[in-house]
Amino acid sequence: MGNKAQDIGEKAKRRKYGQHLTSFDIFYKHILPEIKNLLRNYLWVDLYAGEGNLILPILKEIQPEDRETFFKEHIFLADVHEEMVKKCMSNAESYGISNEIASANIKLRDNLESFPQILKRKKHPIFHITNPPYLYLGYIKKHKETQNYLDYFKNDNEGYQDLYQIAMINDLRNKIGNLIYVIPSNFLFGASVSNKVRRDFLKYYRITKMIIFETSVFEFTGTNICISFFNRKTHLNDEIQSFKAIKFKNKNTFLNREYHLTPKYKYRAGSEFDEFLEEFTAHNSLKISYYLQNDEVLKNSGPIEISVIDANKYENNHYRKLILKVNKNLQEKLHRNILYVRTVDTGSVDGRAGLGIIKEHFGVNGIYVSGNTYRTHPIQIFLNPELSFNDQLLLRNYFNIILEHFREKLDSEFLTTYKYSNANYTRKYLGLTQVRGILETFPYELEVEKKKRLKALIEKGSVIDIIKMIGDYKTTQKV
For residue 422, what are the contacts with CB-CB under 8 A and spacing of at least 6? Predict the structure, then answer.
């Protein structure tokens, strides 16, 4: 019980400071091999050093009698927390560095607030290897104990979304040439949370390599991280960034991936999905709306009883069923729109995000929102123009096969990671903008015979032929 309480307290503390300490394992496996032949060429710096585990192990590569001299000339560490500076000093001493020498190059300092200019006057160029604090701006605003961090996001830093982004931009402004950052993988995959920092940062820096973890790395957070290797460009430019990466699915399984990040899509990984939507959106596409809300029910009250689930009332693993009394207009609207979207993977094979039929899954005619709308609830979809029952079945099957095709092709990277678990795949969140995007590619105006062909291609799983068919259809449409 005591250990559990201690863990909860430690987790809260780490969350408060955005602090997640790096293990020696990460350094030895993934960083040392990349820098081993360069040790005497650089000043090895970590401005958010914690216990020093990303820099101090370099000393094992140096002969004991040379370590103090090497430390004086080649290592500089700092942290904003006094307890971390003390631990860092103690760790340096364990490598044979005297307290006097260690204290000269291990400093208590707030480096998010400003960059230590003295480092740029040292003999060797800076190579910054760091696991900076990460704490999302939305979290900072909501919690009193973290609101003092809001000052970091003012003036020139307005628009950035996380503490780690402030650290990266500080390095950019100070023209640091070589960087290795251990940061949340939302740097690569995030949309609004990372669009600005990617656009600003990748004009100046080239990603040379990335190691991505889709498995828990830090003890007190489920945040997935990547080790990102950056090299400053000689000239500022917007260009496609291509690089190779290793992606760990768990401790023993990994993929070799190649990424091509384009400025047009804000350098976000998985942009091939966005390219598909842009190229294949129908000229006369379906119009989409979401949610059956309380206001609409009140405006359309009447004598007709219709069964719904209440998306705001989840009890004993089920949504509460209700009978609403509505007029004929709303009854017909619900009967004519049979589809809903599951935006979140459940973790089971048959529980992946996608479109489903309300009656099939819930045994009712509608999904009612009695309170606030939440993007993670099942959401009823309303189509304009209205489609026949068979056409909505075709739409469901079309949507799901297209979504699964891109999930397989892009390893689901165009989706937002929802929650890490022991499921046999990483659970993802499908955004409503992405739902709309796929729906808008659906060729609902196809002639009957071509709809039959589309249905046959879906049954065969011939996705390439499906995409060709909708491309051919789009070229024949009148703009």
Answer: none
Contact 82, 106 (CB under 8 A): no
- CB distance 226 to 185 below 8 Å: yes
- Helices then strands, each counted (H, E), the chain: 18, 19
- 47 has pLDDT over 80: yes
What is the total residue count of the chain?
A: 479
Q: Is 392 exposed, middle or buried (0-12, 13-18, 19+ CB in 10 A)?
A: buried
Give me 19's structure tokens: 């602090």
Helix (H, G, I), strand (E, B) or coil at 231: strand
Residue 207's closest CA among 269, 270, 124?
Answer: 269
User: Smallest Cα–Cα separation from 227: which of 292, 179, 156?
Assistant: 179
Digit-coded pLDDT (tens) for 272-311: 999 999 999 999 999 999 999 999 999 999 999 999 999 9
How would you class 401 by CB atoms within 10 Å of its CB: exposed for 0-12, middle for 13-18, buried for 19 or more? middle
Please indicate, yes or no, whether residues 425 and 452 belong to a single structural domain of this protein.
yes
Same domain assignment for residues 321 and 456: yes
Q: How many CB atoms lie within 10 A of CB 19?
A: 23
Give the domain-ending residue among 234, 269, 304: 269
Alpha carbons 436 and 287: distance in angstroms, whole number: 8
pLDDT over 50 (residue 88): yes
**Structure tokens that stand for 274 in this block:** 């966005």
Is the pLDDT confidence value at 180 over 50? yes
Domain span holding position 336: 287-476
Q: Which of 405, 418, 410 is nearest to 247 (CA)?
A: 410
- Measured CA to CA, the distance from residue 193 to residue 320 in angstroms comes to 34
Which residues does residue 287 pair with via DSSP β-bridges, in sequence order?
Answer: 384
Q: 299 and 183, same structural domain?
A: no
Rounded distance between C-alpha atoms, residue 200 and residue 197, angstroms = 5
Predicted local distance difference test score (pLDDT) of residue 421? 60
Tokens of 468: 């060709």
Distance between CA 115 and CA 102 in Å, rounded?
20
Q: Are residues 113 and 241 in the same domain?
A: yes
Among all chains, which residue has been given the structure tokens 């900072």?
A: 140
Q: Are residues 311 and 374 in the same domain?
A: yes
Tokens 């863990």 -> residue: 7
Averaged confidence pLDDT in the chain: 91
Total number of domains in the chain: 2
Contacts of 258 (CB under 8 A, 6+ apart): 242, 243, 244, 245
- Strands 354-357 and 339-342 turn out to be antiparallel
